[in-house]
Specification:
With 332 residues, this protein is α/β, with parallel strands linked by helices. The chain has three domains: 5-86 and 288-320, NadA-like (Rossmann fold, 3-Layer(aba) Sandwich), CATH 3.40.50; 90-199, NadA-like (Rossmann fold), CATH 3.40.50; 207-277, NadA-like (Rossmann fold). Helices cover 41% and strands 15% of the residues. It has helices at 5-18, 31-34, 43-51, 64-73, 95-107, 125-133, 144-152, 164-174, 207-216, 230-234, 242-250, 264-268, 293-304, 316-331, and strands spanning 21-26, 39-41, 57-61, 78-80, 115-120, 137-139, 157-161, 178-180, 192-194, 221-224, 238-239, 258-261, 275-277. The strands form three sheets. The chain has a five-stranded parallel β-sheet with strand order 6-5-7-9-8, with helices on both faces. Strands 2-1-3-4 form a four-stranded parallel β-sheet, sandwiched between helices. It has a four-stranded parallel β-sheet with strand order 11-10-12-13, with helices on both faces. The longest helix is centred in the last third of the chain and has 16 residues, at 316-331. It starts with a helix and ends with a helix. The protein binds 1,3-dihydroxyacetonephosphate and iron/sulfur cluster (SF4). The site of 1,3-dihydroxyacetonephosphate (13P) has 10 residues, from loops. Residues 42-43, 87, 122, 140-141, 199, 227, 241-242 line the site of 1,3-dihydroxyacetonephosphate (13P).
Length: 332
Amino acid sequence: MQLNNEELKNKINEYKKKLSVTVVAHFYQRDEVFEMGDITGDSLELAIRTKANKSEFIVFCGVGFMGQSVKVLSPNKRVIMPKVACCAMATMIDGKQFDVSVKTLNESGISNENILPITYINSDVEVKAKVGEMGGMVCTSSNAKKIITTALDEGKKILFVPDRCLGQNIANQMGLKSCVIGDGTNPADSDIICFNGFCSVHQLFTIDDINFYRKKFPGILIAVHPECDPTICDASDFVGSTSQLIKYIADLPEDQKVAVGTEFNMVNRLRSKNTYVLSSTKPECPTMNETTLQDLYDILKSIDEGEPLNEIFVDENTQKWAKIALDRMLAL
Ligand code: 13P
Ligand code: SF4
């Protein structure tokens, strides 16, 4: 028998009382799934807060790399995902492509000792492990600037994967030179060398969208996520990670209009008035939207029946090096 959303929510709450589980939900989840989260937040908050959590099972509503990060930081916890949905950006680079990128830098005269790799948290655990093994670390959009500032103190070239936009935006903010592998420039001439990955959702925002809102509502503010193209970030009033956007918008006077360039579910629950989605196309993340209340219910049922589905496993060596890369970030 098909249960409606209210019935599903009641059953989910019953399982949450009965089992040693904590439901974790990223801000981009559908509203009805987000409401079920015991811990909610952006990727950095979720990584930190689940680490301190005591439940046997973490039921993670988000995308695959986030569940992997929880497993890496807390190998003794059982991490279960209602849907093992894959962030499109994270699938753009695997371990082999990471090695090819390092080789490209070597061919332009940069030796491994002079490369400090940084991977955005939106990457597979295999890539995080490679980065950790080479002395590098993970960053999120909340702390990328701080991580890059620290990394530059070592006097090395930064290989930034997978998001070319985040890498270039931070370089622009800090007045550093950046390039994208394969753009025809010599990597040796840049401080930050970016892999050519991107988020298709955050590529939806255009200069035309910004011009449209500025013309329609003179005085409107434009706030965007740093996964947007550098031309969009340069033309905006504020650039910030998910949690930084939430704070920026919460601190605005009630009558201040703002158009926001990030994922739809999140923008939609920011403020009831004077908040607009900076796009004529609905910027929904297809993979974040894959998880439904029914999936959450099914996964809790499978835990209750003693045969949890969709459990995340990471092999010992990968776990060790990926943890080193994540811990270097958390130490900062
Ligand atoms: P946050 O690190 O801001 O949570 O972003 C994750 C993400 O996937 C953005 O598209
Ligand atoms: Fe990945 Fe983009 Fe979705 Fe974020 S919004 S999870 S970067 S595909």
